Amino acid sequence: LGLATPMSIMVATGRGAGAGLLVRDAAALEALARVDVLIVDKTGTLTEGRPAVTGITPVPGFDGDAILGLAAALERGSEHPLADAILRAAEEGDIAAGTVADFEVVPGKGVAGLVDGQPVGLGNPALMAHLDVSVDPLTDAADTARHQGATAVFLAVDGHLAGFLAVADPIKDTAPAALDALRGQGLEIVMVTGDNPVTAAAVAAKLGIDQVEAD
Predict the structure, then answer these.
(1) Of the listed 36, 41, 94, 215, which one is catalytic?
(2) How many CB atoms lie within 10 A of CB 207?
(3) Is the CB of residue 184 less than 8 Å from the CB of residue 97?
(4) Does the annotation count 136 as an active-site position?
């Protein structure tokens, strides 16, 4: 009996490692048995972590290719997951990206810089507010994209709204079954994400998650 606890821990950590789960210490493993709430991130956990541009909505005076080219130019210097989606879309569309200077990451909001000498900003509504650019002309279109589970990434050029890119990250095929199995064990699921509340709610609804903390 004295060997039961060490033996069970050894077996459990071995089985976990085989499934790609690493346990740092025995106390954590023992505490896991008492967990009744599981908090999960969205991007890369419930979704594939490989977003794709699903649409571009310009304002009059701009077109999709111009918006994609400017966005790709800025995203060359970004490490955000959405950056890869925008860069891939530009490459697949054979869209040339300009030269960037004075690149700046605005934490929690987006990126900005000079693209071929023009001031350009790319990010969420908070970044547009920071740049004193109104997103009102595209609010309805952006909300439509969000209700479909996409993130709206706005682009401003020379202090004026140019449009937005809809970027969506597909839900992992394995996520629904995994969540059902966890619920079957009595776990309550909460999704926490830095994404927009409307987008977050759309993804959560598809997965049957009732509790969401966004932004």
Answers:
(1) 41
(2) 19
(3) no
(4) no
129-167 burial by CB neighbour count: b if 16+ within 10 A, else e? ebbebebeebeebbebbbeebbbbbbbbbeeebbbbbbb
The two three-digit tokens of residue 169, written as one number: 């990250």
Using one digit for the tens of pLDDT, what is the confidence trace for 128-183? Answer: 999 999 999 999 999 999 999 999 999 999 999 999 999 999 999 999 999 999 99
- Cβ partners under 8 Å of residue 154, min gap 6: 110, 121, 122, 123, 124, 125, 127, 128, 133, 135, 138, 142, 161, 163, 164
Q: pLDDT at position 54, please?
A: 95
Mind listing the pLDDT tens digit for each residue in 37-58? 999 999 889 999 889 999 999 9
